[in-house]
Design brief:
By secondary structure, the protein is an alpha/beta fold. It contains 16 helices and eight strands. The chain has a single domain, classed as TIM Barrel (Alpha-Beta Barrel), CATH 3.20.20.220.
Length: 387
């Protein structure tokens, strides 16, 4: 793991004050009760329209987000690319909206980010969430194989049209498109739609990417089945492979509704599943992988697999991805070695991005060792700079 221990490279873009802020923030996140209380207080303050946006911006928001608008993100993106060789994926992280007007807004913003990506070498991908284009309940109903009403059928037609609109532009501009995964009880509908899009748009190479959440124990079987379909129908598979971000929610719902949890029994099982997926994908030349991981062992494994299968470090079919504000020791050290690396850079109005930020904080407290690792690296760099 020596590759990831170079803190000078990892934090070379952070000023002393930014380093101190990151250290303070991860110390806070390490405290689970503090995260719970902070989340509740923040939600209350935003709902009550208390003037807390400035405080949120100067702490957690500015650490994990690029800005409020896509233009706000440009200095961050340019700095990472020119000084750190790290690319960015602009992620419009407005969540939980339910109106058609909001879905059209997300569509407009996604099309805009595709244009941005075409213009800028520093932005290799565009991204969106399925529920950015349609109601969660609609995906859920389709996943549960329930009959849609006449209104819901026309609503779903609009959702499908939005997906096709972005895919057509992505193909025209040659910008690959990452489609995020969400909760398991709506995911089948999204998967089925994305498979159709891959079949339509991935004839020459992978432009449309789905997302595999490997904390789900059924995803390896899904990937193998998809590979068979793609082989028979003659299209390329693009996959973002992640561990997953809704674990607590998934387990709670499974327990409440008395069905078997879709989540792997423990962390080692998830790690094995994740590594099996990247191994399987690297074996097949018709697949393109975006490995979204904050795990050093999985990152090292992908490096070894690339060497084993003669995949060059800058081959466009293999990317490493981390979230902005996390795992800089992986991102910047990999980029320094010539690998394709992209940071997910979320943006959007402060109050609309809060669900995303809260999930990041909760994720850091629930992943054993994640926050401790960040803190130890930040401590090492503080010490190095003092010396």
């Amino acid at each position: 793991m020596t590759l990831f221990n170079n803190t000078e490279t990892a934090f070379k873009l952070k000023s002393d004050s930014e380093l101190e802020r990151a250290y303070f923030l991860f110390r806070m996140i390490q405290n689970q009760p503090m995260v719970r209380i902070g989340t509740a207080v923040t939600n209350f303050a935003l709902k009550a329209h208390l003037p807390v946006e400035g405080l949120i911006r100067s702490t957690v928001f500015d650490h994990f987000c690029g800005g409020v608008t896509e233009d706000d993100c440009l200095p961050v993106i340019d700095k990472m690319f020119t000084k750190g060789k790290v690319h960015s994926v602009l992620d419009y992280s407005v969540e939980g909206k339910e109106e058609e007007e909001s879905f059209d807004d997300v569509l407009r913003m996604t099309l805009k980010t595709i244009d941005f990506a075409e213009e800028k070498k520093s932005i290799p991908y565009a991204v969106f969430k399925p529920t950015g284009f349609g109601r969660f309940a609609l995906y859920q109903k389709l996943t549960e194989k329930k009959e849609l009403t006449v209104e819901e059928k026309s609503e779903w037609i609009k959702v499908v049209e939005r997906f096709h609109t972005v895919c057509k532009l992505a193909v025209a501009k040659d910008v690959p498109l990452l489609i995020d995964a969400e909760e398991s009880w709506m995911q089948d509908a999204a998967d089925n739609l994305v498979e159709e899009l891959m079949e339509t748009y991935n004839k020459e190479k992978a432009i449309v990417f789905n997302t595999l959440q490997m904390y789900r124990h059924d995803r390896m079987d899904y990937l193998r089945g998809l590979h068979q379909k793609a082989y028979q129908k003659g299209y390329h598979i693009g996959m973002k492979v992640v561990r997953g971000a809704y674990m607590e929610k998934e387990r709670e719902r499974a327990e409440k509704n008395e069905y078997a949890s879709p989540i792997c029994k423990d962390k080692p099982a998830t790690d094995t599943n994740y590594n099996e997926a990247i191994r399987f994908m690297m074996e097949h030349k018709s697949m393109a992988i975006f490995a979204g991981t904050h795990n050093e062992e999985s990152s090292s494994l992908l490096i070894d697999l690339a060497k084993e299968y003669n995949v060059k470090s800058n081959d466009n079919r293999m990317w490493f991805g981390q979230l902005y504000g996390m795992s800089d020791h992986i991102s910047f050290n990999l980029a320094e070695q010539g690998y394709n690396v992209a940071k997910y850079v979320p943006f959007g109005p402060v109050r609309d991005v809060m669900p995303y930020l809260i999930r990041r904080a909760e994720e850091n407290t629930s992943i054993e060792g994640q926050t401790s690792r960040e803190l130890n690296l930040l401590k090492t760099e503080r010490k190095r700079r003092k010396l």
